[in-house]
Amino acid sequence: MLVSLQNVTVGYDRHPAIHHLQLQISAGDMLAVVGPNGAGKSTFLKLLIGEQLSLEGQVTLPDPDRVRVASPQATQLAELMASRNLAARPVAPNVLETTATTAATIGELAAQGGIVLHELTTIRASLEEAYMTLTSDSVEYRTDPASQAQMQQAQVRQAVPQGSARG
C-alpha cells in the first residue's frame, strides 16, 4: 500500500475542508478527484504529496523527497550506496538521484568513502510535479504558440478534404 488515510480531516487554520477520509491507494491504482470549486480537491492532493498536514487522523505516505547528488565519483558513490541496499539512478553524467535515503545519509556515506560531492540537494515533490507525472501518458502539453498554430492548421487540413468543390 502506497497511501493510507484513516479517519483523516484536513483543512486550514483548524477549519476542516474535508472530514473523515478513509482511503487506501496501492501501486497501480487509479484515482480521479472531481468536485466543484472550493470542495477541497487541491487540499486533498496537497495532503497526498505531504504539503498539507491533517487536522486529525492517521496519514501514511511514501517519502516524496528525491535527493540529487553530483560528483565526479558518481559511479563509486552509486556502488557504495548499493552496498548498503540504497538504490540510486543516473539522471545525467556524474549525477545520481535517489528516494531511498536522505541527503544527510548520502553526505555521511560520501565523507566515509572519501568521495567528493559538487551538489547535494533534496528535491521536494510539488503539486504541479505530481499532476504532470500522473497525466504524462494522457495529456500533451504545449507552450509554444507556433506549435499550437501548426496543430490547428493540421486539424483544419484534416477537416477540409483536398479538392473539395467550392460554391
Structure description:
- By secondary structure, the chain is an alpha+beta fold.
- The chain contains five helices and seven strands.
- A four-stranded antiparallel beta sheet has the order 5-6-4-7, covered by helices on one side. It has a three-stranded antiparallel beta sheet with strand order 2-1-3, with helices on one face.
- A hairpin with a 2-residue loop joins strand 5 and strand 6.
- It starts with a strand and ends in an 8-residue tail after the last helix.
Our estimate of the beta-strand percent is 25-35%
Percent of residues in helices comes to 25-40%
How does the major sheet shape up? 4 strands, antiparallel
Determine Rg (CA atoms, Å): 23 Å
Assign an overall shape: flat
What order do the helices and strands follow? EEHEEHEEHEHH
Physical arrangement of strands within the biggest beta sheet: 5-6-4-7
Structural class: alpha+beta
Count of DSSP strands: 7
Mean pLDDT, rounded to whole units?
81
What's the total helix number?
A: 5
Question: What is shown here, in short?
Answer:
By secondary structure, this protein is of the alpha+beta class. It has five helices and seven strands, in the order ββαββαββαβαα.
List the helices and strands and how they pair.
Layout: E1 3-12, E2 15-25, H1 41-48, E3 54-60, E4 66-70, H2 74-82, E5 89-92, E6 95-98, H3 103-113, E7 119-123, H4 127-135, H5 145-159
Antiparallel strand pairs: 1-2, 1-3, 4-6, 4-7, 5-6
